[in-house]
Amino acid sequence: MLAFMKSPQKPAPPAPPPDWSKEPGKVHFLTNETWDSFMKEHSSVLLMMFAPWCGYCKSMKPDYFKAAEILSEEHPSAALAAIDCTRFKPLCKQIEIKGFPTVKYFKNGEFEKEYEGDRSVEDLVTFMKTVSGFDNIPDEKEASKETEPEGLKILTAATFDSFLSKTGHVIVMFYAPWCGHCQNAKPKFLKVSEAFAEEPDKAFTAVDCTQDSGELIQICCDKQGVNGYPTIKYYRYGAFVVEYDGDRTEQDFLAFMKSPPHPPPPSQPDSKAG
After folding, report:
1. Among 103, 110, 118, 112, which residue's Cα sits nearest to residue 139?
2. What residues pair up with 154 in beta bridges, in sequence order?
3. In this predicted model, what pLDDT tens digit does every residue of 68-125 receive, in sequence order?
4. Contacts for 72-77 with beta carbons within 8 Å, 24 or more apart?
5. Which residues, given as ranges, of the chain have pLDDT below 70?
6. Per residue in 225-235, pLDDT tens?
7. Keywords assigned by UniProt (predicted)?
8. What's the predicted TM-score (pTM) here?
9. Which residues pair with 28 in a beta bridge?
10. Calpha distance 192→201 (Å, rounded)
11. Cα 39–43–45 angle (5° rounding)?
C-alpha cells in the first residue's frame, strides 16, 4: 500500500467488447466492404444489427447462431447475417436502426420488412422458411389463399370494415403465418369459432397482416394498432371495444364471447356553472 501511495498506477483500461465475428458459426458478419456483394449473392437475408454490450442482443445471440446453423444445413440460400453497429456506425445508420437489436428481412437486396417474431430458434427458422418458400411451407401469398374453416371468417383489407360494421360481436385475431404463438393459438381459435357458426351476430375472424394485398392490409393492421402477433381485439358493430388479454384457450375464448364486455359510456363534456 505504501509503495502504491508513493507511485500510484492508473487503473487498467476496460477490456474491449468481444468480437462476435471471431466466434465459430454460420452467421455472416457484414462490413462496409462486403455489404453489396453479399446482398447480390443471397436472395433471402435476415439481418441483425447489434451492439456487443446490449443485453437483449446477448440474450438473442445463442438462438440466432443456432438458427443460422440449422438453415445453413437445410437451406443455405436463406442466410442469417449481422452487423456490429459499434464498428460500422455509418452502415447501420444507412439501414435506419431504431435500437438494439434491430432485425430486418431483405429480399433480392432490398429491404422487405421488420422482423417482429419471437427471438427464438423456432420462430427465426420458421420465418425464414416461410418467406423463402421452402419445404412446401406456403409463402405469404399462398397463406392468404387459405380456405375458410367453418365458423371462421378470413378478412382482407377490402372486407374488414364492411363485415365488422354489420356484425354485432366480432373477435379478430391479427396474425402472421410464421408466428409461433399464432400457430399455437390457431387450433383453439378455430375450435371456438365452430361453436358460434350458427350465430350470425357473433363471429370469430382472422386477418393475415402479411397477405398479398400488401400496403393496404398493412395500413389496415396499423390503423387497428397491431404492434405484434397475435393481437386479438373485440369489436361491436364495427367499433373497437377492448383488446383481448385472456389466455388463448378454448375455455377462455368461449367465456369471453358468451359474456363480452360492454362498450365504455360516451364521455360527457365538462359543464361549468354560469
Report:
1. 112
2. 206
3. 998 888 788 789 999 999 999 999 999 988 899 999 999 989 999 999 888 988 889 8
4. 72/26, 74/134, 75/128, 75/129, 75/132, 75/134, 77/42, 77/43, 77/44, 77/132
5. 1-16, 134-151, 212-215, 264-274
6. 998 899 999 99
7. Isomerase
8. 0.52
9. 81
10. 15
11. 70
Instruction: Report which secondary-structure segment, H or E, holds 149.
Output: none
- Residues 229 and 217: their CA atoms lie apart, in Å, by 15
Q: How many Cβ atoms sit within 10 Å of the Cβ of residue 130?
A: 22
- Scan for cell 394498432, then name that residue: 225
Do you know the residue count of the chain? Answer: 274
Joined together, the cell numbers standing for residue 262 give: 360492454
One-letter amino acid at 250 equals E
CA–CA gap between residue 83 and residue 35 (Å, rounded): 10
C-alpha grid cell for residue 40? 447480390
Backbone φ and ψ for 208, nearest 5 degrees, come out as -85, 105
